[in-house]
Structure formats: structure tokens, C-alpha cells
Amino acid sequence: xxxxxxxxxxxxxxxxxxxxxxxxxxxxxxxxxxxxxxxxxxxxxxxxxxxxxxxxxxxxxxxxxxxxxxxxxxxxxxxxxxxxxxxxxxxxxxxxxxxxxxxxxxxxxxxxxxxxxxxxxxxxxxxxxxxxxxxxxxxxxxxxxxxxxxxxxxxxxxxxxxxxxxxxxxxxxxxxxxxxxxxxxxxxxxxxxxxxxxxxxxxxxxxxxxxxxxxxxxxxxxxxxxxxxxxxxxxxxxxxxxxxxxxxxxxxxxxxxxxxxxxxxxxxxxxxxxxxxxxxxxxxxxxxxxxxxxxxxxxxxxxxxxxxxxxxxxxxxxxxxxxxxxxxxxxxxxxxxxxxxxxxxxxxxxxxxxxxxxxxxxxxxxxxxxxxxxxxxxxxxxxxxxxxxxxxxxxxxxxxxxxxxxxxxxxxxxxxxxxxxxxxxxxxxxxxxxxxxxxxxxx
Length: 443
Description:
- It is a single chain.
- This protein is 1% helix and 77% strand.
- It has one helix spanning 223-226; strands at residues 3-10, 19-41, 48-70, 75-100, 104-126, 132-133, 139-158, 161-180, 183-205, 208-219, 230-234, 237-240, 248-260, 264-289, 296-324, 327-344, 347-365, 370-379, 382-383, 387-389, 392-403, 408-414, 422-428, 433-440.
- It has a 19-stranded mixed β-sheet that branches. A five-stranded antiparallel β-sheet has the order 1-24-23-20-19, with no helix packed on it.
- The chain starts with a strand and ends with a strand.
- The relative contact order is 0.10.
């Protein structure tokens, strides 16, 4: 899946020219995965130990020829963009479960993840003559991540009161190597963190329950957000990873109620979340010498940083309704208020507002073998450091039929029926204003 910019304009209040871009390319993906597992059950029911592992090798090669026709200068620029990506992943898990009495259980385990990513990029351009390499976006890079995690949890129930206490420890080891025109560089990052969790519940009746939960979670940056290499989105828009980027951490408090009847279920949750080391995008105008004509020029550079904190509280509602045998509706509505406090270069910006996320799925059973599903998504707007994201929405549909006494299934699906899943954003700074649209798999 790729995301392609539909349009991007700088200084939209005073447009001095337009560029028409035509891109043709080829994208190849190859992947091999091997999984294995072993489980041993002891004499006691529910007492077991399991061991599992997997290996995956993924290769992605992409190549594109790009033509930019700039009407203000009547100049045709041509570019060649090549990206080779390979990832090797190893995963090993060990889990142990021990029942204690009738209502208690102890669980413990360990997990080891290893990821080795090679990213080789080449970008060159021409204004009519020989192609010139863009050295700042051409190079060979490697990203290696090792994650050793351990966990233990105990859960029990006393009459109508249930509880679960847990603790997880993660130890991350990251190494980044870059090799481009600026030379060879290497950087390592290591950190160890603990993640406690507490889940409390009380059964009011057999069909209704209150629960109170706390957990600490981690949001890790992706490898491309960390590797400090410039990626060309298009000539005036570029992205660069940040080798000093750290994970974000979320402390989450939830109070929920669950009520179940024969044909419907509803579960509202009030929550509060505080995120520290919040990862946000900083967009700046950068000066450079264009290697195609030797003239001074500028481009817009987007880089992720840990800027500050985000406080969020709201109501998250999950529901399921089955009024008839042939119709079922289920989904989620999350209404929340947020406040972010972001500091960059001694400049602090506070953004706050309300937003909404919603998902509705409707299942129709047309007969004993045919099922139709329609799914709608809505994601409300949000404002961070300097970028305002607009609302986005989409509608998907799928139909499937069971064959040969339910031993086989044939199906057809349509994603984004109205071609409306577009991500629109506005970025404001002292020197430029940018409006951009991006769309996943446009039709």
C-alpha cells in the first residue's frame, strides 16, 4: 500500500506557478515466512507451557521515472527514483500458565524480536542533459532493532470482584548506520522501561459489569522515522528521520460499563490519557543549491520530534445490535477532547479541541450462504504543532458466498466506494503555507 500526494501548494495566497507531475514506476514485493510452535500440557487442567517462533524475509524494490513540467519557467525536469528495501525479522515467544485454585491464574513469559532493515536509495534529476545525482537523498542505510521483553501477571476473582495485576519490562537496542555523500555514520540507542497494569471489575448482575483499569503503554517510532536520511516526496517536499527520536509513553485510566442482552450489547467507557514525549511533525523551509541548475532554492522539510505532552479525555462507546436473524449492526464511536503542549526551539504552542472517530459495520445475511457487509469510517480533524488535519471518511463493501456445504468461500470487496478517503492538511509557518491532499490507493 502506498500513499501518493495528490496536490501540494506553497504560499497558496500568492501562487506564482504550477507544476504538473507525471510518474510511472514499478513496485515489486516478495516475502517468505516460516512459523513453528510447541506446547506442553501438564496433568493439571489449564497448566501449560508453550514455545513459538517465526522468521520472515521481506523484499521491496521500487523504481519510478518522473517528469515535472513547470509552466512559470517552461522547464521540463526529469527524475529517476530507486528504492530497495529488505527486512529480516525473527520472533521468539515463551508463555507459561498456571491455574491456582478455581478462580486464580498466574501467567508469565518472555518475547524476543529482532529486525534488520536495509534501505538503499538513489535519486537523480536532469533538466535536459545528463542526470545529476542528488547526494543528500542517495545512500545505503541499515536499521537494526532488538527487543527483549518479559512479563508476569496474576488474575483472580473473589465473589463478584475480579482483578488482574501485571508488569511488563521491555529492553530495546537500536543501531543505525548511514552511508552517503556526508560520510559513514553510526548511532546506537538503548532503553529499558517498565509497564504496569491494573484491571478491576465488579459484576452487578450476570449481564452487567463495571470495570476500572490503568495501564502504561508505549508507542514506538517506525524505522523510517528514525533513520536520518532525506526522502523525496516530490521536489519541493521532503521528509527526514530523526536519530534522536524516542518512543512516546501513555498513562491510561478507564472506567467502563458493560451491559448485555439477548440481541444487543453496549459498552461505554470514560477515559483519560496522558502522553509524554509526544511525537509530532515539524515542517520547516530549508535553503539549498539546486544541483540541476546551480541556483539557490528552497524546499519544505518535515521531521518528527518529541515535542511535549498530550492530554486526552473522552467517551468511547462500543455496541452490537442484532434486531433480526438477517441483520447485525456493530461499531464504535469515540468522542474526545485533546490538549497538546509542544515546544520546539524555545517556542511553545498549545493546541486544543474536540474530535470524533467512528466506525459502523452492517452485516446482511441474504440467505443461508450469502453475506453482505457494509462498513463506514469517519475520522475527525486534529491540530498538532503547526499542522491542521481535516476530517476524512470512507465506505467499504464486501459480499461472500459459501460453497460446497461451507467447505469453500468466494468473495468480492470494494474499498472506498466513493473514492473519498483523502487526508487533507494545512501547515502554517512564518515563511510559508502548505495545503496537501493524500489518498490511499486512489481509483
